[in-house]
Amino acid sequence: MDIQEIVSRQKAFFKTQQTKNIKFRKMYLEKLRDIIVNNENLLYEAINKDFGKSKFDTFTTEISFVLNDINYYLKNLNSLSKPKKVRTNLVNQIGTSKIHPEPLGCVLVIGAWNYPYQLSLSPMIAALAAGNCCILKPSEIAENTMKAMSKLINDNFPPEYLYVYEGGIDETTELLRISFDKIFFTGSTKVGKIVYKAAAENLTPVVLELGGKSPAIVTKDADLEVAAKRIVWGKFLNAGQTCVAPDYLLVEETVQEQFLEMLRKYITEFKYTADSEQYTRIINLKNFDRLVQLIRQDKIYFGGNYDAEKLHIEPTILHPVEWEDDVMQEEIFGPILPVMGFTNFNLVLNTILELEKPLAAYLFTRNSEEKEAFTSKLSFGGGCINDVVMHLGNERLPFGGVGASGIGNYHGTYGFEAFSHQKAILEKTTWGEPDIKYPPYSEKKLSWIRKLM
Ligand code: NAD
User: Fold this and answer.
1) What is the pTM of this model?
2) Is 252 a catalytic residue?
3) What superfamily does domain 215-400 belong to in CATH?
4) Keywords on this record (predicted)?
């Protein structure tokens, strides 16, 4: 079926008002949960074919997120969609004021390949929970997961409600010509700009979940063992192909040597090797070649080996690195960790302030002044103090970028709001209204209005 035809059918279906029914939404969310649970193995196999991601990582970083999202909305849908009463000011008496969350209509979700299930299904689930019809376009780069999602969803959902459209740049370009009620895009800043421009043509609102270079700072007041263990995990998880992975590391010089040793120790302990089932491959040769170019032989502190046939790059630490080095010019999005030393914490914050606002930032310290300066001075999407990546795991926190790292956010309540319009309604009684706003005007009426307003 032609995609334009499917979108037209979704728009017509939305107008039947069926998706506004909470029972309808819950029924399909439950159905989706059953489909995922009953086909878990198929999902694991597809992602393993795409880039060797283990069952453990797929469950902890993808499937569990998606199931949690469904359960969150099933549990909270009644309260999220209920009109919220707010205070009515004096000039609007006698009346009541309410905010009615309403679905937007037919929305488009464009996913990225690095967490192909989570980044496609989580926004899609939020869209359905909020009562929309949805077209999902997963990333073609993770081809097997794209096909698995399209089969499971298109075989089980009516296309006029939910449809997965397979395809790459041509198909996305075709979709971007269609007028949607919202576009939710996850991917690179470069493509985010293309999406934003196309959306502007139709005045379509967007959420853009983009990337950037996310710093991690380790000061001499950090618990170094904990910091090293958590950074190694968060950086090399998914072979560094994580939008919120610490991109580069800034370590206070007095503890730098000691800290580098700890990083080495944990990489070895975690057994992130080419033949290890738990270490993910690089998604394709294009990205592999790009990453290998960033490994400067004279800067390798640890690792640096790679195997093009297996699309494997060892966890690699580059040190000492300068701000001018190639590896510091673009988001790395792979298992290469540049480490730089610093002597003055405030100067480091000032340097980061000069760069594009990152999607995430991390600080390891026990010093409360440093925590305060980090939180109040830097602007970034979200982050952690004394951990990395895990802020994503709390659905009560909004997830999204700021500036070059994105527009808007989602997860939990924020996902529901991202796909809702907050319709304001003031209801008045038909009695008890003073005459002062109606002509003919007078000084006396104006003086009353001044008092009331
Ligand atoms: P990408 O921008 O190449 O692709 C994302 C989507 O856009 C895909 O579905 C693709 O088909 C489509 N696309 C690609 N080129 C296009 C074009 N010219 N015109 C129209 N559509 C096009 O991103 P990616 O490689 O899948 O993901 C990597 C990037 O995404 C990184 O920068 C990463 O930081 C970012 N990312 C951000 C988040 C987040 O939640 N903020 C999550 C994951 C990845």
Assistant:
1) 0.96
2) no
3) Aldehyde Dehydrogenase; Chain A, domain 2 (3.40.309.10)
4) Oxidoreductase
